[in-house]
Amino acid sequence: QQQVRQSPQSLTVWEGETAILNCSYEDSTFNYFPWYQQFPGEGPALLISISSVSDKKEDGRFTIFFNKREKKLSLHITDSQPGDSATYFCAARQQGTGSKLSFGKGAKLTVSP
Amino acid sequence: GGIITQTPKFLIGQEGQKLTLKCQQNFNHDTMYWYRQDSGKGLRLIYYSITENDLQKGDLSEGYDASREKKSSFSLTVTSAQKNEMAVFLCASSRGGADEQYFGPGTRLTVL
Fold it and tell me: Which of A42, A95, A105 is closest, CB to CB, to B42?
């Protein structure tokens, strides 16, 4: 059973637009949600994360919006740049317990100049 | 800072062959992980190790063995390579099980 789901699987936006990547989860005990960014030929790297006590986390052009009641979150990338073209993974686990991360299948973002 | 090194970068083997992938980290992290990444399927945990000489099975451990020889290294063995397991194998490490995971660049496995 897929614990973490992402949509869309792929997204193309123009440079300067806002890209929105969605994520939902099944396990209500999940309370820590990192987003990873992966470029071709490289391993994923932590981009931004949020815990369930917050409903928003911002880091520059990247913002996570979190809805605990609906078990949904989204990653917004404002003023998208061609260098943001990558695959983005949503992940989830119980924070502080050392439990395993559950990853979504990833979303491939292409930013066209 | 630190770095995770995975060798080899590309691994080609024959069906049924035993193959070993290696991972080294110089973060001085306690916990290390092996993930398998298939196109369109995300990352699935194969094995992880909380500390030297510890080994824990992940969701996809069947057909694999792992060994944490020392704190800085973690190897993964494909016991009998199959064509349906061609994928990228990612090694990661973290200070503790609840901390940020840092990933290596991966080993791409091709089975002929």
Answer: A105
Distance from CA of A97 to the nearest CA of B (A): 6
Domain that holds residue B81: 4-111
Contact yes or no for B30/B98 (Cβ under 8 A): no
Q: How far is CA B59 from CA A14, A66, A94, B44, in A?
A: 38, 27, 17, 7
CA–CA min distance B67, chain A (Å):
19
Instruction: Name the closest residue on chain A to residue B58, using Cα atoms.
Output: A100
Q: Kindly list the domain boundaries of chain A, sorted by start residue.
A: 4-112
Tell me whether the omega of the peptide bond preceding residue A8 falls within 30 degrees of 0, making it cis: yes
In CATH, what number does A4-112 get?
Answer: 2.60.40.10
Contacts of B38 in chain A (CB under 8 A): none
Q: Mutating which of A2, A99, A103 best tests the B interface, going by the most B Cβ atoms within 10 A? A: A103
Total domains, chain B? 1
User: Locate tokens 């949503």: which residue?
Assistant: A90
In tens digits, what is the pLDDT along chain B, a chain of 112 residues? 899 999 999 999 999 999 999 999 999 999 999 999 998 788 999 999 999 989 999 999 999 999 998 999 999 999 999 987 789 999 999 988 778 899 999 999 999 9
